[in-house]
Amino acid sequence: MQSRVNNNTIIILEIEDKIQWHPAFCSAMELELREYKKYLRYEREHNLGKMPLKIDFLVIRKNPSVTIKNDIGDFFLGNNIFEYKSPGDDMNIGTFYKALSYACLYKSEAGNVSEILNMDITVSLVREQKPVILLEQLAEKYEVIKKSDGIYRISGLLFPIQILATGELDPKTHVWVTSLTRTIDRIRTQRLLNSCSELEDDEDRRNADSVVNVTSEANIELFKRMIQEGDQMCEELKEMLAPEIMEFKIRLADKDAKLADKDARLADKDARLADKDAEIAKLKKMLTDAGIKI
Fold first, then answer.
1. Which among 73, 174, 236, 254 could bridge 68 via Cys, Cβ 3.0 to 4.6 Å?
2. Does residue 67 belong to any structural domain of this protein?
3. Among candidates 246, 173, 167, which has minimal Cα distance to 212?
4. What CATH code is carried by the domain that includes residue 36?
């Protein structure tokens, strides 16, 4: 993490770095696929052998005969690898081949040659913004098909691959994963809270808590206004977020905003002092050039 300097951009980056996007993404994906939970097994940060390499999210299909009617998971095979990028993180050709190498390493762990030859793996790369340059580069060598809004399938490689641009997905159909953003609005927040209230399974509720907590951290000003207004949405929020946790988040956001303002004032003061120093130096030079000793 970068150290604090008199620069508002650095301060914002420090705040954003505290948000735990990856665990919330895993929770969101489990909720997206919860209709098929008894047919799937999930592994978070799956270790690849003894190396310090981890798959962000691994979905193992336990029953291949079950049809998954979900446009994210309808191309699942036996083992399905997810590489997730937090909002604002880059997704480029290096990311693509890293995920592909994870699939190869994962496959190399198979117990025998016949298992290795059976390419029962898919790869999904997930990012909020559409990786336009990456898709253009892939289209030069492989077939890239837009299956639906936010879902791009790439064929012609060793494994079936898809790129998910969550910012383009239907927020009504994919309420969980599309809520992992810094730009959620009141309508989508209400939809998220309504979806949370409909959950009955304890594990689903825990996953929903993870999503709501990260969404609230990433959109603290909106949640702060909602809490302060004290409407029905506020009551629903209080059921999802412990009041002391939300209060802490609000105080932290206020503190960081005050620090940012203070640093901005200090930077302005430093700039004025620098201007004065430059003016004094200019006057000294003029006096020296005129033969006047200082």
1. 73
2. yes
3. 246
4. 3.40.1350.10
Q: How far apart are CA 187 and CA 264, in angstroms?
A: 34
DSSP 125: E
For the range 222-230, what are the long-range contacts, defined as Cβ-Cβ under 8 Å and sequence gap of 24 or more? 222/184, 222/185, 222/186, 222/189, 223/189, 223/249, 224/250, 224/253, 226/186, 226/189
Q: Which residues pair with 124 in a beta bridge?
A: 82, 162
- Domain containing 121 equals 8-183
DSSP state letter for 200: -
Q: For helices 132-139 and 93-108, give the axis angle rounded to 10 degrees.
A: 70
Give the burial string for 183-212 (b: 16+ CB within 10 Å, else e). Answer: ebeeebbebbbebbeebeeeebeebbbbbb
Question: Token digits for 102?
Answer: 């994870």
Strand, coil or helix: 163: strand
* Of 55, 33, 185, 52, the residue nearest 107 (C-alpha): 55
Q: Angle 87-131-141 (CA atoms, 0-180°, nearest 5)?
A: 150
Q: Give me the tens of pLDDT residue by residue for the chain, a chain 294 residues long.
A: 333 344 444 333 444 457 888 889 899 998 999 998 889 989 887 776 555 678 899 999 988 888 899 999 999 999 999 999 999 899 999 999 999 999 988 888 766 556 555 678 999 999 999 999 999 999 999 999 999 999 999 999 989 999 999 999 999 999 999 999 999 999 999 899 889 989 999 999 999 989 998 998 899 888 878 777 765 555 666 566 655 455 555 565 666 666 666 666 677 666 777 767 777 677 666 666 666 666
Q: Which residue matches tokens 């999904």?
A: 124
**Tokens at 3, concatenated:** 């150290």
Q: What is the pTM of this model?
A: 0.71
- 40 falls within a domain: yes
Residue 254 covered by a domain: no
